[in-house]
Amino acid sequence: MMTTTLRRLLSCAMILAAASALQACFPVVATGVGTGALMIADRRAPEVYLMDEGIELRLLGRINDRYGDRVHINVTSYNRNVLLTGEAPDAAAKAEIGKIAAGQDNVRAVINELQVAPPTAYSSRSNDSFITSKVKARFVDANRFPANHVKVVTEDRVVFLLGIVTRKEAEAAAEIARTTGDVRKVVKVFEYIGDDAAQRLDSRPAQKK
To answer: Is residue 106 located within the same domain as residue 132?
Structure first.
């Protein structure tokens, strides 16, 4: 009989696969009901959430125009802090991509975690997506913090954790990610807030159901 964890894991994997397929077909994905639901459950202000989406799209477009398939870059903007992961052909390209990111409107900071290496194989990227789905499923099962408050990005089996969280939430998320199968390293890219601030953010009128 299929366990709850396995059901959730398979559901996450199917969602990730569908999202990847859509992104491969369409450079810009229209926002709608799904985005609205995600914003309601997020600690970022709605305008910042949308700003992050715009930063990612614009920056990916600029990098693709400049480097094409010579690089494999993931851009993740969270509360206007930009995380760069993936592979660049040399140190000069890595530095230049970091400068491009820092020069984008509304970007507060850039965390440049690009590796100087050939682009990873598609099999490696699929495995990374599976790791992300496993970590997210374990967040839900553990129920130690609201799982939607932590964003998970995996590159070459290194798991990056982003979010606006308390220290306790951050440690719980890192522990769960670190003990997930096939994860070789966990990097915390959190913004820390106190318990009172977390409670205020979670009780905003827009987040009440």
So the answer is: no
CA atoms of 182 and 134, how far apart (whole Å):
10
Which of 74, 94, 116 is the last residue in one of the domains?
Answer: 116
- Kindly write down the DSSP assignment for every residue of 94-109, as one continuous string: HHHHHHHHHTSTT--E
Token pair of 172, please?
């719980």
112 is a domain residue: yes
101: exposed, middle or buried (Cβ count in 10 Å: 0-12, 13-18, 19+): buried
Domain for residue 35, yes or no? no
Q: Do 84 and 131 sit in the same domain of this protein?
A: no
For residue 22, is it within any domain?
no
Cα separation of 177 and 147, whole Å?
A: 12
What digits encode the pLDDT tens for the residues 25-44?
Answer: 333 444 444 556 567 789 99
pTM (two decimals): 0.81
Q: Are 185 and 158 in contact (CB under 8 A)?
A: yes
Helix (H) or strand (E) holding 207: none
